[in-house]
């Protein structure tokens, strides 16, 4: 159990004093006090290896583990309740007595944790104001509430199980006992929860009956629903897919995601029918041939993979059977408000959903789901029924004041009665929620120990399921049974850690700055989000078109962390996010006072509800990207044993002899890559030209000397665009998939625009070089491999890509080249320090240190440890940094970096200014007064940029100067203050700066305490390399300026080394020696 250090307790008291002195209104201060409370309990539960969906569950866990006094537990729970009201209730007013009781509760918590560490200032204030504890109330009668499960047991009548008894703590902090008695129907077999629940899970209890004469005792009734871990949202469609005509099978939720299947004619037809319907909503008189061509252009690879005969059948089938139905239906919507693909988040029921169509008629909202498959003779299929039941639940809870109308399935293939209304009932809703609960329980158990699930799977025979599911499950079982014992253990560990990652992404637990994951969207207060720069508020719609919204940003100078390309959600500011329809999309541009957002699905017409309100914008997550590594793992294990052995690191990769080595070092590396038969790893330290020089040179050799087809992948769109630009310079023809602002002519969408099927097929089949992001590739690779044979895979930025993300791609291609630098930025994960728990001896020496390690880094270590040196290469010559700057990172590369140009050794010409007459400058600052930016450093940066410009050292901001800032808030603060003449200057995080270079680099470190130092670090597994610092420093060609607090930075051995080297070889200044633009005293 984690306890607080004296330093952490001291910081908590310091924060209390700051809040006491803060002149802000009490409600805002109580919200900030909640943030302190969350931080304390996060630290106290840091070693629990559990994910809690919120503060409520975390408090119960800590109090039980530390045996907290009952009176303290009661006070902390009352504080939590008051903080929640302040955060989420607009009309809640905080009295002085409530504020005093809140401070007293926090003080008593700190005294209980650290009795010998008091704070005189806090104690004195509480005594002067005669602060008293919160008054505790009795159990109030209620039918619905949230609680945290502490223990449970089955209820038995004789030898028969008849229900389950749950002991819990309710959301008022009171003990409660819940009796759930089994009744008819799957959704009322409450005893099933015995295999679903875990200690300290959160339950949302709906429509319970209070037991007369027993306060805090409740029992189920025919309308009761229990939602397990409601903040873990599951797609309504994913729950519905678990239903067959014979009942629910929640196991399908995982099994369906384990196999990534190539497109089938049925699947492609369904997508195209949906696409045509969307277009008809906006253009009801559109010509069918044009509509089909538009739909074909949206999924060209899938359609071409089916072949011309099936494509023609799809064309005729839609034209003759589906188009008349959907055309007639969309024609009936012309005078109505229509929303395509509206989205909702519904933590009440633990669901989220994206409907096909929501339209208004006669003052009511109506749901329509399109299905292109064969309809039953009467009614609808069970799976479709449950999907609509889920949407009914969601709309009822989130849909707002507009009454709910009918819910329907539109069968586009039905000649009679295509629009079929679907009714709902409590019985169906209970079945749906119980299935959803079981899905959550399965995923939680998989995050703990997947072996139980897969032992069960291998023993079961699914002979009664639909044929396509039976075949899919059979293939999974066949794959599992073919594995060696060590491979099976490898599979279980990778799956366990992947499920943990999904869990943390959804509900939080390991994020450095918040106890929440995606559930922060509805759990965290606006004030806290604003303090963390994670929300844009007070947005005003200026223009609305089919799929683009243009907003005017508020004029209060708010600092945010959003940028073009971010995936976002939009919602009305006057409503809770889970009480309305949300808009999902992507930021197209953000600058000055203007924000443009593209809306997924589009908006049919301007609506007063959109235009007459303020809006808020937050970050979103892509559900598909969370689960895609699961099918990648299965695809890899389905490959041949030789492939598996190679990329686990058990077998030595093969390579051909090189008759005669070239003279130039870079050409020698190209020869080694060319000679490799299985894989080759190239580590390219900063400035060695691994992308602009090596990768392009290698591709040119393959392109001109062989007839091979290449697939080139990278992690980011920016890196993919850089590859494309280099290929274009060398006259290499390629296709770029996905979206790009830099590459247009070679974009697949543009290459096939307006073309017929055979022309599109020719474009695809004639291309020998494909370029994409890993995420994009995972979406279409199975289909592309049916059209063309990919001979070789080249992955740039391979050190930034998770192993489980790319193994499925690697498994399907003969040879792989991995290019990157494991000493630069690692993969992004919420559990970078979490290790694998392998026990098999065969897995012991394969360098599996942590989940956050890339495949490239691991295989590079394996090759070096096993002496397979012919399969890994490090580039030594670099062309960027002056030697004085390169010396700062030489320890990370064992002193093997060699400068290639005379410029890198030349002395610095004198400028007559001590700030400019040294290549290395450190400027000392006090700790920042703000969490994520520092006005003092902003002013200093402005002074430095003016100084560089005045001395002719920033004539071209795009090449002469760059500013690296660790936090987006600091970036925006700097951007707001820079003059227009420096509008093209790049100010960005180290993550976005990787791959770039500037003559002069300014690094800002706006840190307000040692506890946030980890935010600017990214340590290797052995702690020998700080990857973020390596990238930041190595962007500089001629001069490096570092701004930071020496006392804080010295706590990092890497930044201490940096300070020491600059002190020895450069200059150190105090910020007061730099003339600031304005006074911050």
Describe this structure in words.
The chain has 1081 residues and is α/β, with parallel strands linked by helices. It is 40% helix and 18% strand. The protein is built from 38 helices and 38 strands. A seven-stranded mixed beta sheet has the order 5-6-3-2-1-4-7. Helix 2 (26-44) packs across helix 4 and helix 14 (426-448) crosses helix 17 (485-507). The longest helix has 24 residues, at 308-331. It is globular and about 85 Å long. Mean pLDDT is 91; it is low at 1076-1081.
Briefly say what this structure is.
With 1081 residues, this protein is an alpha/beta fold.
Which band does the percent of strand residues land in?
15-25%
Helix and strand content put the structural class at alpha/beta
Strand order of the largest sheet: 5-6-3-2-1-4-7
Shape descriptor reads: globular
Descriptive tags:
1081 residues, alpha/beta, seven-stranded mixed sheet, seven-stranded parallel sheet, 40% helix, 18% strand, disordered C terminus
Write the layout of secondary structure elements.
Blueprint: H1 6-21, H2 26-44, H3 55-66, H4 70-88, H5 96-113, H6 120-128, E1 145-157, E2 160-170, E3 175-181, E4 202-206, E5 209-210, E6 217-219, E7 225-228, E8 234-235, H7 236-240, E9 243-244, E10 247-248, H8 252-255, H9 265-282, H10 288-298, H11 300-306, H12 308-331, E11 338-340, E12 343-346, E13 351-354, E14 357-361, E15 364-371, H13 382-398, E16 404-411, E17 419-421, H14 426-448, H15 451-459, H16 467-482, H17 485-507, H18 520-523, H19 526-531, E18 536-544, E19 548-552, E20 567-572, E21 583-591, E22 594-599, H20 608-611, E23 614-619, H21 623-637, H22 641-648, H23 665-675, E24 679-683, H24 690-705, E25 710-714, H25 717-729, E26 735-736, H26 748-751, H27 757-766, E27 769-773, H28 774-784, E28 792-795, H29 803-810, E29 815-820, H30 855-865, E30 872-874, E31 877-878, H31 883-886, E32 898-899, E33 920-924, H32 935-950, H33 957-960, E34 961-964, H34 968-977, E35 986-988, H35 990-993, E36 998-1004, H36 1027-1033, E37 1036-1044, H37 1046-1049, H38 1053-1065, E38 1067-1070
Parallel strand pairs: 3-6, 8-13, 15-16, 24-29, 24-30, 25-27, 25-28, 26-27, 28-29, 31-32, 33-37, 33-38, 34-35, 34-36, 36-37
Antiparallel strand pairs: 1-2, 1-4, 2-3, 4-7, 5-6, 9-10, 11-14, 12-13, 14-15, 16-17, 18-19, 18-23, 19-22, 20-21, 20-23, 21-22
Helix pairs in contact: 1-2, 1-5, 2-3, 2-4, 2-5, 3-4, 4-5, 9-10, 9-12, 14-17, 17-21, 21-29, 23-24, 24-25, 28-29, 32-34
């Amino acid at each position: 159990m984690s306890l607080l250090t004296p330093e952490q307790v001291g910081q908590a008291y310091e924060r209390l004093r700051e809040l006491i002195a803060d002149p802000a209104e009490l409600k805002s201060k109580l919200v900030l006090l909640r943030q302190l409370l969350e931080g304390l309990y996060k630290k106290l539960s840091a070693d629990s290896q559990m994910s809690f969906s919120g503060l409520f569950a975390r408090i119960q866990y800590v109090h039980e583990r530390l045996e907290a006094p009952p009176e303290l537990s009661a006070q902390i729970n009352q504080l939590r309740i008051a903080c929640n009201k302040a955060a989420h209730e607009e009309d809640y007013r905080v009295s002085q007595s409530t504020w005093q009781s809140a401070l007293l509760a926090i003080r008593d918590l700190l005294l209980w944790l650290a009795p010998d560490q008091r704070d005189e200032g806090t104690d004195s204030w509480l005594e002067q104001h005669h602060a008293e504890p919160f008054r505790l109330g009795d159990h109030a009668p209620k039918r619905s509430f949230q609680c945290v499960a502490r223990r449970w047991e089955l209820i038995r009548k004789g030898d028969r199980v008849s229900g389950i008894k749950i002991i819990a703590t309710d959301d008022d902090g009171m003990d409660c006992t819940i009796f759930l008695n089994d009744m008819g129907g799957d959704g009322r077999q409450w005893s099933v929860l015995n295999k679903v629940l875990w200690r300290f899970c959160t339950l949302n209890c709906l429509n319970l009956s209070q037991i007369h004469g027993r306060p805090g005792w409740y029992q189920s009734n025919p309308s009761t629903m229990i939602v397990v871990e409601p903040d873990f949202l599951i797609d309504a469609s994913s729950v519905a897919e678990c239903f067959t005509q014979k009942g629910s099978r929640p196991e399908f939720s995982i099994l369906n995601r384990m196999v990534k299947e190539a497109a089938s004619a049925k699947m492609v037809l369904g997508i195209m029918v949906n696409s045509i319907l969307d277009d008809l909503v906006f253009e009801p008189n559109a010509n069918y041939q044009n509509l089909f061509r538009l739909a074909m252009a949206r999924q060209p690879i899938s359609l071409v993979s089916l072949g011309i005969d099936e494509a023609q059948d799809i064309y005729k089938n839609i034209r003759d059977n589906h188009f008349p139905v959907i055309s007639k239906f969309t024609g009936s919507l012309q005078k109505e408000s229509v929303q395509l693909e509206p989205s909702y988040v519904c933590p009440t029921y633990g669901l989220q959903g994206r409907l096909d169509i929501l339209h208004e008629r006669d003052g009511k909202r109506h749901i329509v789901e399109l299905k292109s498959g064969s309809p039953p003779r009467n009614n609808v299929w069970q799976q479709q029924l449950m999907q609509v039941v889920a949407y009914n639940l969601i709309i009822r809870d989130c849909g707002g004041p507009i009454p709910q109308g009918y819910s329907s399935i539109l069968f586009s293939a039905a000649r009679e009665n295509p629009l079929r209304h679907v009714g709902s009932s409590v019985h169906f809703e209970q079945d749906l929620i119980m299935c959803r609960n079981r899905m959550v329980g399965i995923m939680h158990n998989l995050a703990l120990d997947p072996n139980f699930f897969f032992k069960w799977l291998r023993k079961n025979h699914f002979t009664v399921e639909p044929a396509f599911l039976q075949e899919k499950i059979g293939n999974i079982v066949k794959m599992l049974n073919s594995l060696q014992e060590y491979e099976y253990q490898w599979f279980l560990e990778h799956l366990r850690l992947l499920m943990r990652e999904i869990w943390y992404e959804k509900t939080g637990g390991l994020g450095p700055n918040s106890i929440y994951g995606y559930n922060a969207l509805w759990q965290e207060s606006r004030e806290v989000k604003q303090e963390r720069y994670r929300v844009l508020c007070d947005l005003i719609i200026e223009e609305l078109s089919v799929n683009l919204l243009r907003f005017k940003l508020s004029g209060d100078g708010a600092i945010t962390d959003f940028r073009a390309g971010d995936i976002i959600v939009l919602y009305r500011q006057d409503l809770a996010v889970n009480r309305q329809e949300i808009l999902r999309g992507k930021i197209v541009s953000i600058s000055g006072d203007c924000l443009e957002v593209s809306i997924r699905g589009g908006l049919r017409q301007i609506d007063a509800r959109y235009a007459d309100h303020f809006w808020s914008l937050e970050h979103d997550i892509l559900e598909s990207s969370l689960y895609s590594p699961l099918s990648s793992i299965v695809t890899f294990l389905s490959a041949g044993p030789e492939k598996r052995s190679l990329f686990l690191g058990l077998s030595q990769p093969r390579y051909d002899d090189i008759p005669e080595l070239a003279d130039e070092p870079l050409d020698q590396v190209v020869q080694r890559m060319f000679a490799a038969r299985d894989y080759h790893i190239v580590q390219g330290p900063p400035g060695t030209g691994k992308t602009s020089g090596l990768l392009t040179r290698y591709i040119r050799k393959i392109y001109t000397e062989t007839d091979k087809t290449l697939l080139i992948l990278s992690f980011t769109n920016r890196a993919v665009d850089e590859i494309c630009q280099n290929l274009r310079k060398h006259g290499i023809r390629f296709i770029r998939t996905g979206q790009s602002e830099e590459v247009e002519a070679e974009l697949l969408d543009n290459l096939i625009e307006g073309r017929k099927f055979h022309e599109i097929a020719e474009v695809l089949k004639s291309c020998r070089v494909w370029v994409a992001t890993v995420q994009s590739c995972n979406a279409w690779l199975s289909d592309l491999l049916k059209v063309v044979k990919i001979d070789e895979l080249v992955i740039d930025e391979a050190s930034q890509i998770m192993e489980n993300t790319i193994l499925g791609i690697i498994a399907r291609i003969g040879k792989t080249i991995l290019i990157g630098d494991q000493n630069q930025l690692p993969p992004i994960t919420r559990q970078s320090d979490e290790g694998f728990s392998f026990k098999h001896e065969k897995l012991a020496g394969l360098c599996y240190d942590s989940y956050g390690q890339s495949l490239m880094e691991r295989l590079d270590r394996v090759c070096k440890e096993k002496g397979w040196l012919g399969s890994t290469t490090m580039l030594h010559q670099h062309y960027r940094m002056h030697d004085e700057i390169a010396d700062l990172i030489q320890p990370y590369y064992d002193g093997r970096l060699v400068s290639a140009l005379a410029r890198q050794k030349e002395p610095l010409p004198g400028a007559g200014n001590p700030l400019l007459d040294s290549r290395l400058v450190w400027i000392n600052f006090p700790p920042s007064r703000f969490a994520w930016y520092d006005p003092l450093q902003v002013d200093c940066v402005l002074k430095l940029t003016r100084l560089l410009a005045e001395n002719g050292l920033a004539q071209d901001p795009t090449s002469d100067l760059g500013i690296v800032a660790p936090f987006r808030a600091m970036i925006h603060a700097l951007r707001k203050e820079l003059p227009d003449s420096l509008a093209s200057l790049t100010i960005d995080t180290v993550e976005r700066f990787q791959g770039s270079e500037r003559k002069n680099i300014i690094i800002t470190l706006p840190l307000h305490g040692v506890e946030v130092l980890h935010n600017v670090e990214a340590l290797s597994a052995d702690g020998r390399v700080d990857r973020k610092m390596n990238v930041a420093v190595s962007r500089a060609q001629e001069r490096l300026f570092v701004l930071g607090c020496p006392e804080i930075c010295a706590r990092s051995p890497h930044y201490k080394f940096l300070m020491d080297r600059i002190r020895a070889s450069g200059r150190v200044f105090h910020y007061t020696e730099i003339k600031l633009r304005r006074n911050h005293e």
